[in-house]
Amino acid sequence: GKRYQFNVSNASATRNNRVISFDSLTLKPLMDRDSFWRSWPFQKDFITLKLGSGYIHDFQPLHPDIKKGARIRSIDVQELELIAARDKQLPDDTVTYRPLLAGQITSIPFDLRIDSVMMQNSSVYYHEISPKSKLEGTLSLTDLHGGIFNVLTRGPYPADSLVLDVRGRLFNTAPIQLRYVQPYQDSLQSFQFTVGFGKWQMNAANTLLAPLNSIEFRRGVSDTMWLTAYGNQQFAYGWMGHRYQKLRLGLLKNGYDRNYFMSGATNAFTNMFLINNNRGNATPFFVNRVQNKMVFNYWGRILREGMMGNMGMPGKKKQARKAMRKEHIPAHRSVP
């Protein structure tokens, strides 16, 4: 049955210049979050979408039936807010494979060709309930500006690539610049993923790390961080450089308890093996993809593997160097 409600206010269109405008748009489930999850036998994302004012420029139907496809020069939106939540305590879903971002777009069942989708003053929030701690972790991307380019569900040419290029703030504090490029007609779904961070207090990430991983940054200042990843539907590899100081981690019990038995000794032992101050030397990383997870899970694992390597944790550095030698990717030594 119907599960979502769609509303748009003050929509209008002009025939001469083919512009559609609206004051606001919302898409949300008809049920509250807990009821929505109970209605599914497995994990399902609870998603709400809100847009402020928006303009669709140069809208051209590609078929007599307008529902079958359209060509759009640009979509410009203000104050987009996307909120997604998942309860990992429920059984995993039955999907065994999910394509990467370009593949997901080409699986849309109608002909859509959009040159650019631009957003201003936007935000994305992801909430996840841990099956171990029963607590909810939150990842936030705010103050987002940028766009996604070459959105093609049908007929991309060999030279066409999907491009995502945005800047904003991670955890409401860390300046971030993110770029993702993926050719449409590459059978291996190869991509390049680059991320850059400005200065931030690392304990801002505890809203995600503590509930989901039972770990927290007790202190630490990240001056700058960059990552360059090359990958495909099976694995990713690359370099991460991270300049930080005064790093100290704390291990938690059940996502919140700091004062468990032997906690002091455990944390002291853990921090003995960390690189507490890093001048920005680059570290190679290698990540195998979990095939049935979304591309955003893949990005998160890439970032996590790179950060753990910079802090001195063991990883698949030999595999990373071997993969990069094969593709003639030069070594990086320090933060640019």
Overview of this structure, please?
This protein is of the alpha+beta class. The protein is 17% helix and 47% strand. It contains 6 helices and 18 strands. It has helices spanning 33-38, 101-106, 206-213, 263-272, 295-310, 317-326; strands at 4-9, 12-14, 19-22, 24-29, 46-51, 54-57, 60-61, 69-78, 81-87, 111-129, 136-152, 161-170, 174-183, 191-197, 200-201, 215-231, 235-251, 278-288. It has an 18-stranded mixed sheet that branches. The longest helix is centred in the C-terminal third of the chain and has 16 residues, at 295-310. It is globular.
How much of the sequence lies in strands comes to: over 45%
Q: Give the oligomeric state.
A: single chain
> How is the main sheet built?
18 strands, mixed
Shape: globular
Compute the separation of the termini in Å: 53 Å
Q: Strand-and-helix sequence, N→C?
A: EEEEHEEEEEHEEEEEEHEEHEHH
Quick check: average pLDDT? 91
Number of helices: 6
**Could you list the spans in which at least 5 consecutive residues all have pLDDT below 50?**
none
Counting helices, strands and paired strands, the structural category is: alpha+beta
The radius of gyration computed from the alpha-carbon positions, rounded to a whole number of angstroms, is: 22 Å
Helix proportion: 10-25%
